[in-house]
């Protein structure tokens, strides 16, 4: 039986993971759960159902509220960033699922790697921020980094059994988000509700906005660079509105291998949990006779500048990807709180990237410091903007 520690238990990936654990009770056991702490009642319910040995909350203030809702036997309660790292490092688990959203996943994900735990990675921001440090630590400890993102899981599967030196390029598919057919001139006036209407996937608010700006694909380019050791110019984004082809790999002989399936995150999650084996996923099956035509086209880089910014950050290296990610998180949060407009997101990121430090990141501590500094700087830019939207 595999013991699982789940970082981000109350998010969409976390809850889908727990559904799969419940579907395979003879295969999986929950060892630890971690969450931000905003939904204490839900977390208490999950503890009663899955009986983890330990629970960590990023919000230290939520620990007392959480403790009052638990019946005996209570799990060990940990708090704050240090508590999340301790959970990932010290709780005995066969697989750590990293599904926290944003930079909050950085320290516990690195702690899991340093402890030698197999990592099922659904938090792309950690590799964006510290890809060189994460992959180097994984090599030293012999840790498997198993992608959970549907696109990177697809690439991982398309690479299986092939020589990495024969790869010509990676093709990441994108649904195009809710604004793929919206004229650029209208984007400045779109609302939060418009941006949250993703045409294909049901996800959390932050990643849904990233999909609307195509920053999600920009982050995935950086993630693919570190996961699969390919240069930026060998990763192409292709808009594929049907979301049937989850990604492709083109080889030097011109052969293209694709992974297809229904839009259900349960498939890549379960594959990461059972790798290198497979299990029957309790999900709808793909019927190609019913899906209709499959279409592909290039994204509009002028309408979606976040793609350009992500590539530029990857090529610059050093602290630039840390700055990119931190600025994006603050800008997306400001948009969700109606403090800025949709097109201001890319503008704030670009302003933050100007003058970002070059050179190699030397440590996780340096990464954390640059992340915090960037967040403060972008918050000041948000505060200084005129014409803020009322909440």
Q: What report would you give on this structure?
A:
The chain has helices at about 10-25, 40-50, 60-70, 80-90, 105-115, 125-140, 150-160, 190-195, 205-215, 215-230, 265-275, 290, 305-315, 320-335, 345-355, 365-385, and strands at about 1-5, 30-35, 55, 75-80, 95-100, 120, 145, 165-175, 235-240, 245-250, 255-260. With about 400 residues, the protein is α/β, with parallel strands linked by helices. It has a 7-stranded parallel β-sheet, with helices on both faces. The N and C termini lie far apart (about 50 Å). The longest helix is centred in the C-terminal third of the chain and has 21 residues, at about 365-385.
Q: Which class of secondary structure composition applies to the elements?
A: alpha/beta
Average residue pLDDT? 92
Largest sheet: 7 strands, parallel
Principal-axes geometry comes out as globular
Question: Can you count the helices?
Answer: 16
Q: How many individual β-strands?
A: 11
The arrangement of helices and strands along the chain is EHEHEHEHEHEHEHEHHHEEEHHHHHH
Which strand order spans the largest sheet, edge to edge or round the barrel? 4-3-2-1-5-6-7
Helicity range: 40-55%
Distance between the termini: 48 Å
Low-confidence stretches: none
Oligomer: single chain
Rg is: 20 Å
Strand content: 5-15%
Could you give a short description of this structure?
This protein is an alpha/beta fold. It has 16 helices and 11 strands. A 7-stranded parallel sheet has the order 4-3-2-1-5-6-7, with helices on both faces. Strands 9-8-10-11 form a 4-stranded mixed sheet, covered by helices on one side.
């Amino acid at each position: 039986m595999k013991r699982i520690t789940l970082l981000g238990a109350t998010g969409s990936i976390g809850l889908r993971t727990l559904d799969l654990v419940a579907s395979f009770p003879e295969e999986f056991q929950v060892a630890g759960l971690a969450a931000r702490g905003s939904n204490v009642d839900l977390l208490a319910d999950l503890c009663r159902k899955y009986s983890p040995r330990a629970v960590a909350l990023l919000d230290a203030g939520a620990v007392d509220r959480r403790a009052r809702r638990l019946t005996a036997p209570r799990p060990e309660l940990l708090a704050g960033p240090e508590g999340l790292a301790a959970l990932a490092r010290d709780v005995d688990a066969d697989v750590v699922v990293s599904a926290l959203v944003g930079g909050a996943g950085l320290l516990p994900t690195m702690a899991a790697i340093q402890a030698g735990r197999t990592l099922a990675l659904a938090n792309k921001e950690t590799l964006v921020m510290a890809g060189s440090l994460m992959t180097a630590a994984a090599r030293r400890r012999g840790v498997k980094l198993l992608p959970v993102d549907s696109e990177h899981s697809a690439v991982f599967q398309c690479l299986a059994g092939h020589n990495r030196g024969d790869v010509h390029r990676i093709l990441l598919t994108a649904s195009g988000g809710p604004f793929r057919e919206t004229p650029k001139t209208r984007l400045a006036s779109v609302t939060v509700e418009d941006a949250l209407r993703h045409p294909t996937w049901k996800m959390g608010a932050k990643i849904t906005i990233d999909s609307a700006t195509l920053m999600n694909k920009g982050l995935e380019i950086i993630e693919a660079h570190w996961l699969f050791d390919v240069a930026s110019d060998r990763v192409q984004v292709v808009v594929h509105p049907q979301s049937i082809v989850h990604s492709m790999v083109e080889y030097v002989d011109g052969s293209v291998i694709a992974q297809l399936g229904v839009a259900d995150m349960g498939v890549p999650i379960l594959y990461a949990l059972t790798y290198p084996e497979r299990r029957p996923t309790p999900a709808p099956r793909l019927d190609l006779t019913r899906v209709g035509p499959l279409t592909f086209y290039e994204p509009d880089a002028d309408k979606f500048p976040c793609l350009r910014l992500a590539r530029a950050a990857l090529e610059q290296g050093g602290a630039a990807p840390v700055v990119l990610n931190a600025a994006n998180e603050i800008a997306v949060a400001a948009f969700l709180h109606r403090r800025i407009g949709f097109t201001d997101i890319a503008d704030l990121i670009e302003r933050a990237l100007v003058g970002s430090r070059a050179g190699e990141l030397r440590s996780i501590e340096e990464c954390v410091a640059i992340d915090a500094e960037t967040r403060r700087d972008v918050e000041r830019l948000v505060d200084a903007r005129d014409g803020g939207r009322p909440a």
